[in-house]
Amino acid sequence: MTSDHLDSISLSFVQLGRGSPVVVLHGFTGSAAAMFGVADALAPHHEVMSIDLVGHGRSPKPEGAAHYGYERVVAALDKVIVDTGLARAHLLGYSMGGRIALSYAVAHCDRLRSVVLVSASAGIADATLRAQRRRDDEALADRIEHEGIGWFVDYWMSLPLLQPRSELGASLSARTRAQRMDNDPHALANVLRGLGPGVFPSVRDHLGDLDLPVAVIAGEHDMRYRAVAEDLVGRLPRGVHHVVPDAGHAPQFDNPAGLAGAVLAFLRDVDAEIGA
C-alpha cells in the first residue's frame, strides 16, 4: 500500500494485526521487510504498520537530496499516520528510524501515545562534530555512487558497530546482506545527504518538553548506544531504559524475542495506563 505525500512521492507500507496501533520505522539500508521479526511479534496484540522510508524498499527513490530532507520525511510520516487513521499510535523506530521517530514526536506529540527508540539517538548536538559527520557522509555518498552497491554493502557490514552479537544474528547475515543489496546506490547516497546524522537536526534540547512515555532500548553489547540511551532517559520526563541481552546494535536480528518482549511489555503498560 502507499500514501501520497509531498511532490507526488508516496511511501510504501505493510499493515498486519489488530489492536492498538504501532507504526514501525527501519534503519538506514533497511526496509519494512527488515523489521518483520518485530512486526510479526507485535501483530497478535497490535495493528502494525511497517513503513518503507523514502529511498528504501518499495518506496520511491527520487533524484536529488532535497526529496530526502528530514522535514519532508517527517511530513510524509505524518500524512501516512493521518491518512490511515492511526492517530494516537505507538511509534517505534530503529537507528535512523529512531531519529525520525523522535523528531516526529517532538513535532506531533499529540498524534502519539508512546515512542520506542531502538539503538537510536537524538542527533548530534555539537556543531563541530555535526559538520565533520556531514563531510564524512558526503564523501561516503559520493563513493557509493562511484563504486556501487556491492562495495558499499561489504563496507557497511564490516563496521564493528554492525557485527552480529549472537548465533542467530550471525545466521541471518546472508539474509540481511541480500536485503541490503536490493537497495539503489543513488538513493542510499541521497539518504545520507538528506537524513544523515550530520544534517539531521538534534532534538536533544527538546526532550524535556516531550510529555509521552518513551522506551529507549539498546543491545547488551552495544556500549555506545547503551550510554546514549542512559543520557536520553535522563532527559526525558517519562523515559524508561531497557537492555536487550545477547544483542548488539541490531537486536531485531540478534535477539528478536528479547526485543519483542521488552516492546510488548512497555506497550501493554502504556495502553493500560490510558485505558486503551
If you had to describe this structure to a student in words, what would you say it looks like?
With 276 residues, this protein is of the alpha/beta class. The chain has a single domain (2-274), classed as Rossmann fold. 46% of the residues lie in helices and 17% in strands. The protein is built from ten helices and eight strands. The protein has helices at residues 36-42, 70-83, 96-107, 127-158, 167-171, 173-181, 185-195, 223-235, 251-254, 256-274; strands spanning 2-4, 10-16, 20-25, 46-52, 89-94, 112-118, 214-219, 239-244. The protein has an eight-stranded mixed beta sheet, sandwiched between helices. Helix 3 links the parallel strand 5 (89-94) and strand 6 (112-118). It is globular. Mean pLDDT is 92; it is low at 2-6.
Strands of the biggest beta sheet: in what spatial order?
1-2-4-3-5-6-7-8
Q: First CA to last CA: what distance?
A: 26 Å
Number of strands: 8
Quickly give the CATH architecture.
3-Layer(aba) Sandwich
DSSP strand content: 15-25%
The number of helical elements comes to 10
The secondary structure category is alpha/beta
CATH class: Alpha Beta
Largest sheet features: 8 strands, mixed
The best one-word shape is: globular
Radius of gyration of CA atoms, rounded to a whole number = 17 Å
H/E series: EEEHEHEHEHHHHEHEHH
Q: What number of structural domains do the residues give?
A: 1
Give the rounded overall mean pLDDT: 92
Work out the helicity level. Answer: 40-55%
